[in-house]
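Open question from group meeting: does this chain pack into something compact, or does most of it stay loose? Before anyone orders reagents, we agreed to write out a predicted structure and look at it together. Recording both the input and the output here so the notebook holds the full record.
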Amino acid sequence: MKNQLKLSALAIAIASSTSAFAAEPATSIEQAFTDGEASLSFRYRYEFVDQDPYKKDANASTLRTRLNYKTKQYQNATAFVEFDSVNEVYTGSYNSKLNGEVNHPVVADPKGTDLNQAYVDYAAPVDTLFRYGRQRILLDNQRFVGGVGWRQNEQTYDAFTLVNTSISDTTIILSNITNVNTIVGSNINGENHQAFNIQNKSLGFGTVSAYAYLLTDISDTYGVRFDGQTDLDSLSLLYTFEYATQETDESDSSEADYYVAELGAKVAGFTAKMGYEVLGSDDGKYGFSTPLGTNHKFNGWADKFLGTPAAGLEDLYVSVSTELAGPKLALIYHTFDANEGGADLGDEIDFAVSQDFADHYNVLLKGAFYSQGDSNPVADVKYSDTTKVWVQLSAKF
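C-alpha cells returned:
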C-alpha cells in the first residue's frame, strides 16, 4: 500500500536534514535543546489469531506509546532520541514469544520499554550526512533491510551510516551495523555487518538500485532492482524487476537466488498489480533468506513465511486497491509453492481498510486468511490454517 517509488527513509532523512540545516541554526548548545521539537504518538491494536491445531485463540490488546525529541541544528549537528513503551490494555491471552503462553498462537508484541532510536546527525560538505547511533535503516522496499514497522516494537540498528547525494539523481547509502535490535527485544549480534545501497533516478521513468548486504556469519547478498512508473493519457503503468544472489557464511556454504517481477496499472482511481516472487533453494537444503527484512510486507500478512522454507518459496500474487470510497481499500491474493519440488504450500487472502480523520488520527481494519496447501513438507504448525484480524487506532501529535 506504500508508494514503492519513494526513496529510503535515510534518503528522506538527508533531505529533511538539509532543509533543517538551511533554517536558522541555534547559536548555542542550550538553544539547540530548548528550541528543539518533540513528538508524541499512540498506537492501540487488537490482534486476533485462530490457528490450527491450537485449541486456544490468541487475543492481544496492546498499546504502543512513542515519545521522541529532536534538537535544533548547532554547528551542522543535530541529535534525536526516541522511546517506545508497549503495554497490554486489559489482559492478553497470546504467545508474545517472551511470556511463556505457548498454548496460544504467536503475536510478537511483547511488553516492554526501550530506547528505540538515539543518534547524532552531522551535515558534512559535498551533500553528505553522517549518522551515528541507534537508528532506522529502511532500504528500497525493505525486502532485505527494514524496520518491521508493523509490529509494536520496531527493529532498529546500532550503526554508523553515510548518505551522499552529490552525484545528480543519485543517493549512496553506506552503513556499518554493529548490532540489530529485534522486535522481541533480543539482538542479532555482529560488529561488522555492511549494507551498501546505490539508487539512481536519472532515467526519469524509474529508480535503479544496486546493493550488497554483507552480514557477518550469516550471508552475503548482491542484487539489482528496477522500480518505476510511466504515466499515459488515462492510466499509469507500474513495474518492478529485481534479482539477487546469496551465499551463506558457513564453511559448507549454500547458494540461492532471488527474483521478482511485478506489473500493474493505475486507472480510474484503482491500482491493480500482479507479481511473481521467487526465493530460491539450494537443492532443498537452504532457502534464500531475508533476516533483516520487513518480512510482514511480503508473502502474506498471516506471516507464514517470515522464514523461507529449505525448499524455497514461489509466491504468485494479485492485488487491487483504491481510495474512491474515501477509506483506503486493499485486497490481495497469494498462492504459494515450493521452489524445489513444486509442493503446494497453500494460498492466502488479505484485506485492509484504512481511514485518516481529524488531522491526527487513523483507524485500520486488516485481515489475513491462510489455507494450508495439499503438501506440507515441513509438517509444522507454522503452515496450518490460520485466520488473523487486526483493529488498530493511531494518533500522532
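Observations to bring back to the group:
The chain has one domain: 9-396.
Residues 29 and 74 are 7 Å apart (CA to CA).
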